[in-house]
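ok posting inputs for the Broken Fe4S4 cluster job
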Amino acid sequence: MADKAEKKKAVEKSIDPAVLEVLEKATAAGISTMFSRVDEMKPCPIGAAGECCKICSMGPCRITGKDKENKTGICGATLDTVAARNFARAVCAGASSHSDHGRDIALTLLAVAKGEAKDYQIKDEIKLHEVARLMNISTEGKTKEKIAEEVALKALNNFGKQDSEPLTYVSRAPKKRQELWKKLGLAPRGIDREVVETLHRTHAGTDQDAEHILDQVMRTALGSGWGGSMLATDLSDILFGTPHPLRAKANLGVLKKDEVNIILHGHEPTLSEMIVAASREQDMIDYAKSKGAKGINLAGICCTANEILMRQGVSVAGNVLHQELAIITGAVDAMVVDVQCVFQSLAKIAESYHTLLITTSAKAKIKGVTHVQFDEHRPMEIAKEIVKMAIDNFSNRKEVSIPSFSNDLIAGFSHEYIRYMLGGKYRASFRPLNDNIINGRILGAAAIVGCNNPRVVHDKAIIHIAKELIKNNVLVVVTGCSAHASGKAGLLAPETMEHAGEGLKEVCEAVGISPIIHVGSCVDNSRILTILSEVVEEGGLGDDISDLPAVGICPEWYCEKALEIAVYCVASGAYVLFGGVDSPVSGCEPLVKYMIDGWEAKVGGKLEFEPDAQKIVEKTLEHIQKKRKALKIDKAKERILYDMESRRELSV
Ligand code: MSK
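and the output
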C-alpha cells in the first residue's frame, strides 16, 4: 500500500519517464533529491510573498496580517517599499550573473586578440565585423586581432563606463523604444553601475518609493538584456562560432554504458568548448580505450549544455532537475561544473556513487569537492587534465542503470540563421515571417524560456503551453531548461509539425523549420530581443516591440535570473507571463497590480504571474489577438487567386 502511495507521489513529480525511473531508484536507495526534499521543506510564506525585510539589524521585520497595508517596519518602511526592495535585489543578482558571464567572455576575447590565449581562435570573422559595425568600430585595414581587441575593449567599457550615455547595444532597439527609455530615464548607462546603484538605493533609509525603485530595477535589467547578456551571446559567437542547425539527442538515455561519460553543467562555454575539443583528440580516445572504455561521451545539463549543443551538437542529459539524477544512474564518471544552477546537494549525492564532481570556476567552489581551476591562458591543458581524471574514474563504476529514454532534436538557431533560413543567402530577412504574421497563417510568436522548479510537476506546464500554442498557429522559440524540456519531449524535431495548426504548419513546411525553435541558453534570450527588433524594423507590424503580437512565458521559474530576464523583456515592451510558483511580491497586492497595469501604461510591457498553464495559453492568445486588432490584421483576409488578367490590372 505504502509502495503504491510512493509511486503515485513520484508520478506527480514529473512528466519525464526518465526522471520517474531514476527517482524510483533513488527512493529505493534512500537517496534524497530535490524532488523529495521539496516535500519536507515548505516555503516560508512571509519570505515567499516579499513581506519580510532583513536589510538591517533592527529587524528582520515582517509586514504581515490583515492590516498589513497600515503596518510598517521599525524604520517606517511600508509593505510596498519592502517588497520592491526585495524584488530589486533579486533582479540585481540575476543581472549580475548574466553580466558577469558576459564580462568573462569579453576578457577571454581580449586575451585571444592579444595572443595570450592561444588555444582559442576567432571562429566567426563575419560576426566579428558585424559586432564591430554595431559598435561603430571601423574595420578598414585592420587585422581580425586588432578588430577583436577593439571590440573587447568597447565591450568591457560598457561594464564600467561612468558617463550617462546609453550602453552601446541600446541602439539596436527600435527607435521608438530608445526614445521612450530616454524620456523615462530607463536607458542603462553602465552595466555595473546600474547594479551598484540598485544595491545603494535599496540600502536602509535610501530609496523609499516603490515605483521609483522599480524604475531602477528596469534600468538594471535592461543593462543585462541589452548589455551583459547580449555581449555574452555576441562575443561567444565570435569566439566559438555562430550557431547553425545541428542534430543531437536529449534525456538521460544519452549516457553510454560502455563509454566514459562526462557531464558538463552550469552556464559558460569557455571551458566546456575546450573539453569538447579535448574529448575528440585521438590521444584522449586512445587513453579511454586503454582503460576499457569504448570512447568518451559528453553530455550537458542546464545552459552549459545549451552552449555546446548549439555550437557542437553535444547531446543533452537534461535540465536543471536532472543534475542529481544523472549521478544516481551510476554512469557519470565526472561531472564538471562552472557557475549558476549548480546545486550543493551534488556533493552529497556524488559521495554515494563513483562520480567525480569537479568545480572549475574561481567564483564557485563547493566545500569538499575537487577543484580544478580554469584559466583561459591554458584551457586545453586543463581540459585534458579533467578528461583524463574522468577516464581514470571509469573503472570505479559500480551498478549502472541508464534510463533508455532520449529523443532526437535539432538545435542551433541563431537569429542570423533564422533570418537566412527565412530569406535565403542573398535576401536574408525577416520579411517572410512578418508577411505570414500579417496574412494570419502565423497568429503571433511566443518565447518559452527558463527553468524547472520542483514545487510544480517537472516539465508539465512547459510542454502543455508549447503544444497548445503551436496548435493555435503561434510560432514558439525556446531557450534554457524549457528548451531541454521540449527536446526531451520530442518537440524540437521536424515531426512536431503534426501538433501545429494548419497555417503554421504550411509556413514551417515551406521554410523547412520546426514550429518550436531552439535559440539557445539563458544569456541567449538576448537573441530574442534582437529578433523582435529586426521584426519591427522589417515593417508592417508596428514600430515598437510593444506593438508585436508576441508574448514571453516562463512556465516553471525558480531563480533570480529568470526575474531579471522577465524585467528586461517587460521594459523592452513585452507581455511576460510567469507560471508555477507565485510572484515574489504576492504579499503586496498594489505592487502585483502595478507590475501589470502600471508597467503596461509606462513601458507597454507587463509582468503577470499565473499558476494555471491553460490560463497562460488563453492569456497569450488573447494578448496576441489584442495586438493583431491594434495592428488591424485581426480579420482573416480571403486568399484571392489572381488570373493573368487580374494580374495585368495590378498597378505594380
Ligand atoms: S539553466 S537559469 S534553471 S533555465 Fe540556464 Fe535552467 Fe533556469 Fe538555470
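notes: DSSP finds 26 helices and 16 strands in the chain. The CA atoms of residues 313 and 392 lie 25 Å apart.
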